[in-house]
Amino acid sequence: MSVLDGNTTVVIVGSGVAGLALGNFLLHSGVGCVILERRSREYVEQRQRAGVIDTRAARMFREWGLEERVLGGVPFEPVMNFRIDGQTRPYQFLGDDNGDGRFCPQQVLVRNLIDTFVSDGGDLRFEAEDVALENIRGERPLVRYRDATGATRTLTCDLVAGCDGDHGVSRAAIPDGHLTRYTREYGYAWLTVLAEVPANHQSMMAIHSRGFAGQFARGPQASRFYLQCPLDDTTQQWSDERIWDEIEARFGEPVATRGPISSKQMVPLRSVVYDPMSYGHLYLLGDAAHIVPPMSAKGMNLALHDADVLAKAVVRQVKDNDASLLEDYSATCMRHVWNYQAFAAWFTDLMHDSGDASYRGDFQHQIARAEFERLYASTTANRLFSEFLTGLN
Length: 393
Ligand code: RFL
Known about the structure:
The protein is 35% helix and 29% strand. It is an alpha+beta fold.
């Protein structure tokens, strides 16, 4: 049985940070929308990932009047703690304007965005399976899905926001040949580990000849650790004991406690951009359109930027019958995306090439070390780095 649920202005596929931010901005502006999410609410609210909301993204929530309700965590301290060959070298940013960033686990933001959307009367449908997009170039796109009871439902809309990540259905609905895919593989992976270990600092990053290691606070009692490793490593090769031994070797000091490890995952580092970020009445946002290596801590922030740009464009279309911002959506986002892809590639190379020279050779190693020292020696280099960290350029 197929149920026509009716019409709305925007169907949003996916309730990650992009979809939820967009949904809240539209709801707040009186624009109708429905969010369809494949997973359950519990699953989405528990999914652990990013931790840094940059200054630009924090101010965006303030502009939309949602800062108090959605931003959790603690203010981002303008210090990065590097451990270089076992020595601590704190790095202080010099930017004048970096005050609003937050150290906030992604799932805290997601939970707050869901609570805000639902308590304000938003229509968010979890466990929506087999979402299919039809007629995305036509006058009224149609979105079909199967609800939690197994019934097939359909929605018509003015436009579809594809916020369903890298493996979603939205980008896959675009015919071959329309999108250009730009990609870069870095040649190594991160073993990412979530453990019950309190962190002394918001972040600690080790540069070492054995490879990069990082520790990032995820709330008062948990940390996420990262270890650079070869692309063909598997989590089975990394026992808990081996992980702790390697973290201690790269940091050159013992960890506070070898707490229980709750998850292990391999993430190959890569950069990807799909251009353009739209097709007919379908607009792609966040990881559905671009991936940055997690070293940059910009994936979630780019997703939030896309949501801001698309929400403003839709509001302009609906309120003023002016499609100009929607027509510019992809070009506007692309400028920002490529600027941050450039930053992400630079910072990822810098942090890895400075350590284990076996991946990219001794010449790159020496260059990376020189660039790293420049960050300390040059206030100009420091200010540019700060601008990127805050997301304000
Ligand atoms: P999300 O968050 O993946 O949400 C997509 C949503 O779509 C749903 N979905 C579907 N729904 C309906 N139908 C379908 N067919 C669907 N297919 C998928 C999914 O269930 C999900 O709910 O994408 P979005 O919103 O674009 O947000 C992107 C960010 O989540 C991502 O870029 C960041 O997590 C990247 N990232 C980091 N970003 C930062 O800004 N700072 C960080 O510190 C940071 N650390 C990280 C990260 C990503 C990591 N992983 C997972 C590689 C650390 C790690 C380990």
